[in-house]
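User: My collaborator sent over this chain with a note saying "see what the structure looks like." That's all I know about it. Can you take a look?
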Amino acid sequence: MKNIQQITLQITGMHCASCSARLEKALNSLPEVVAFVSIATEKANISYNANLISKAELILSIENTGFKSHPLRDFSAEKQQKQKTLQRQQRQLILASLLTAPLVIEMLLMLSGVHFMLPIWVQFLLATPVQFWIGARFYAGAWRSVQGGSANMDVLVVLGTSAAYFLSCAVWLFNSGQSVYFEASATLITLVLLGKLLEATAKGKTSKALEALINLQPKTAHVERNGVMTDIFVEDMRVNDLFHVRPGESVPVDGVVVSGISNLNEAMLTGESLPQIKQIDDKVYAATLNETGLLTCRAQFVGANTQLATIIRLVEQAQGSKAAIQHLADRISAIFVPGVVAIAFITFAAWFFTGSGFSIALINAVAVLVISCPCALGLATPTALVVATGQAAQAGILIKDAAALERTHKLSVLLIDKTGTLTSGTPVVIAQRPADGVTPDHLMTIAASLAQGSTHPLSRALTEQAKTRKLVTMKLEKFIELPGQGLRANINEQAYLLGSPSFALESGVCIDEAYILDIQKQGNTVLVIAHGVSTEKTSLYNLLGYIAIADPLRVESCAAVQKMIAMGLRIIMISGDNKATTTAIAEQAGISEFRAQVLPQDKAALVESFKLNGDLVGMVGDGINDAPALAAADVSFAMKSGSDIAIETADITLMTNNLLSVIDAISLSRATLKKIRQNLFFAFGYNILGIPLAALGFLSPVFAGALMAMSSVSVISNALLLKRWQREH
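Assistant: Without extra context I'll predict from the sequence alone. Here is the result:
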């Protein structure tokens, strides 16, 4: 039996897209391993069969490919380690700059007409530590890359700078009288270091949204144990602990209020700024802010099981996944470096054999090598995705993977479930009509007793009504529920039925169709309750009465539908309810297309039918019965108030229970894909223009190095502009 497990490993030593592509290829060549490596987050998300391979073997495979790896540490420890690495890079850059400065000054003075030249031995002494001490990381990276059977950015840097350095050494040793290029090799390495430092700094900014989420959770909690109040670390809390939340403090874990009343700011969770009133039996969530009163709560979910931890986990998962458009960049990067090396050799041969001399030919070939670094290409997509998923989380939109975010902007058809999605999802009883000789309380008692065995929202409305009226429900036997129709059960050895009018009619109940239609045309639902004698061969039921239930539209549903239509989406409402009620709700919501009396299995078939027509189909739902359709859709959205299985199945979870968040998701998807296209245009355009200019001798190696360094920074900076994205509501 397979033992499939997931692990996220932190990777160090990757410099460009070809690095991540090489590592991904090596991991995916292992038996039953599926890995996604992100250059932006420097992480590998790996699914593997623990029966065939261990974590230690995965790490060894990564190290054999030329990189270093370790299991993911907590965020603060990882941040501290990255800070140390950044400081080391800063020290290396300062030292390289000090050694390179005299060489650059000499070059600038000569370009301005002032004849000044450092002795060659001085240039050698200045350039050598930059080339082989500070630049040792490039040689090590190039060697590991070649050992792995490919070539990365380090290979280009090593070939380019070594050519300039060793040519200069040869000119000096043999006293040939030609120019030396120590300043070119030293300056190139310094510029590459500057570019990598700027890149690392910019990449750090892409994860600010995730860092902000992690920093939201308080470090300690006021916990009551054995009647004694004590402050403990949040990680030491246990399920069922009683904890107090004072005004101005954040909730430490997910729980339920057992005493007190207060306003909680849940903006970090839902994106909504208005505080929510919390009182006894209301749920509270980790990191939400208590604004007014004192609350005593009982812990329900702690540690990795809180909503906040789930959000962080999903954001990290999405940031480590790949969009389809990224695979194009990966494929190009895999052949890019060998292609550039070939172009450099052709450039050298063309200049040399046309009589320009060895040094000119070599310098132009070096310029080709230096300007062709594929870093910008590798960073174009993942940096935009990292920023976008962070922005989405802050807006209460949890995106499971990058592919879903990419597909969202192309949706053409959006199917929306009625109950709990367009409507509030909390139906209430608005009227009863008992049959002759039946009291309203008896009718409601029977209905609520039957509803005990069901999780349907209409059943919950019946049980809540019984609680309000303090009616005592009775024990059920032989309970059978038919999804989308109704249920049957025995109470005190008597057979009863609860369900839709069509279900009752099929069961032989005589119903008042005119009364039912009148209620349904108002957008309400009618349930029929009947009592009878059931045998193995036949079932005879007598009408006990009707109960009318209303599930009003959410306040924002109409506005959301109109905005979706304005965005060019074809909106179709689907419901298991009868046609009259479905028609009324559709009219209220401003939806012209709908499907009524759709069973759960038929919802998925409906999604597939639109996909067969070539449409990219989205599905918005909240219930267990929506799960098959959510799984079938190209992009699926689940409301936070929905069932666990719906949330687990969906690509995107809306933490606000607000349909306008679907519009936000589409808007963010469009903005993100726009940035990715811009980044790819910059990355491709930079190389398409830069390589020919370098080959034709219009770019010096130093200028080429400066452009190469800035290309990665420009791509990341452009991705960071996604932080300006604003929600639609």
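A starting point for your reply to your collaborator: The two ends are 49 Å apart (CA to CA).
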